[in-house]
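Board notes (copied after class):
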Amino acid sequence: GDPTLLNLPILKCWPLDGGRFVTLPCVVTRDPDTGERNVGMYRVQVYDSRTTGMHWQLQKVAARHGRRYYETGQRMPVAIFLGGDPMYPFAATAPLPDGLDEFLLAGYLRRKSVELVKCETSDLEVPANADFVIEGYIDPTEPLRMEGPFGDHTGYYTLPEPYPVLHVTCVTHRRDAVYPATIVGIPPMEDFYIGAASVKLFLPVFRMNFPEIIDIALPAEGVFHNLVFVSIRKTYPMQAYKIMHGLWGMGQMMFTKYIVVVDEGVDVHNTSEVLFHLCANTDPGRDSLFSKGPADVLDHATSEMAVGSKLGIDATKKLPGEGFHRAWPPIIRMDPAIKSRIDSLRPR
């Protein structure tokens, strides 16, 4: 019979959601000019049995692919797969450099190449062990449709906005398929831990560009990229500002609203410790930098969608070349010998 989405256990997650949403979709698209593939994760609102919203935001790779199809007027093939190896959704959300295939990352992490099969109704490829595959197309000649609201990882509802409509042409599944889903909301939730794993995985990539970086943390309160703590091994004046500008220029880090740079001895995963050094080591007028740039489409606080301001704070020890000419006091630390002596006197 005709393909239908209504037989899938798709969730309505929060009371004010505009409908049911597929929340762990791996969305496959292809650049019509270069043939390069992208696998991203963009929520999918179910409108009816054969149409959905396709919420790829302005700065996402799939949206760029889509713009090319809108310019040429050609139908855009799209494949959505669910399930299979857990590395697939992780790779789909990973901040990979543009043009690097997400299936390569998934294969590397699972230590086994990803077997791909061609879709039934398009030339796109999906993993052979996916649980469900939803195939379809976007018609650039038809109007956009309002998508949302949706209770998002920001902790707020994303309000309705116009997005492309996916027309479903085929739904397939494996025998005894398992439908995967997640719920996002006020952090920390499941997506926060996926993001934390991505930071650990890509820290060596950051260090290739900025060898002075010791560690990076994205606190849960910052819902991924709103707030970034970074520790550096500081060796020259204004180095913290170099790091701020550099991070704002790297992929999805462009969405970061606040960057706090601290010295190498500070544990960036301990928010209390970072705030202590932020309050102790800064003069707000001297150590703050305002900048402007792209903003997350999901950020409801910006005056205009997708553009906003950023604040960088240098909470490192100041050097004379940074306009600081006073003596910098040592931080209070107990003598290790005394600590050792006290420890030896305590009953075990």
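Comment from the instructor: Residues 190-209 form the longest helix (20 residues). The chain has a mean pLDDT of 94.
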